[in-house]
Every structure is written in structure tokens, then in C-alpha cells.
Amino acid sequence: MADICDQADDCIDLALECARSAIRVVPKLPDSNGKCLNCESSIDPAQHFCDAECRDDFERIQAAKRRNGTR
Question: In the chain, what are the domain boundaries?
């Protein structure tokens, strides 16, 4: 039978796994409007970003917002 310390460890492990899974969730991108989602430069309407650098910056910013609990 598990003692109170084992139960506390299990609870902590569960809380950490929930937090980690929330960070890994990648939200769907909004519909393209002809502007880069990061720098707002004009781009082809079928694209979301003007280049890989803007895409990476956008993803890094969004990940930081998810970690901090903002949108």
C-alpha cells in the first residue's frame, strides 16, 4: 500500500505531465489574409509567412505565450 509520500509524488507527476502536454499543443493557424503573420509583409494569399525565419519567430512567440498563459 502506498504511503502519503508516494501519493504526493504521483500527484506531482500528474500535474507536471498535464502542464507539459498543454505546452506541446500547437494551435491551428488563422486563415491567411495576404500578410505575414509575424512581420505583416505582403505575401501570396496561400502562405502564412514570408520566410522560415518569420515562421520560427512566430512559433517561438506563440510557445512563450502558451507557457505564460497568455494568448
Answer: 4-68
pLDDT of residue 28: 82
Q: Mark 14-47 as b/e (b = at least 16 C-beta within 10 Å).
A: eeeeeeeeeeeeeeeeeeeeebbbbeeeebeeee
Contact at 8 Å (CB) between 58 and 51? no
**Mean pLDDT across the chain:** 88
The predicted model scores a pTM of: 0.59
Q: By three-state DSSP, how is residue 41 classified? A: coil
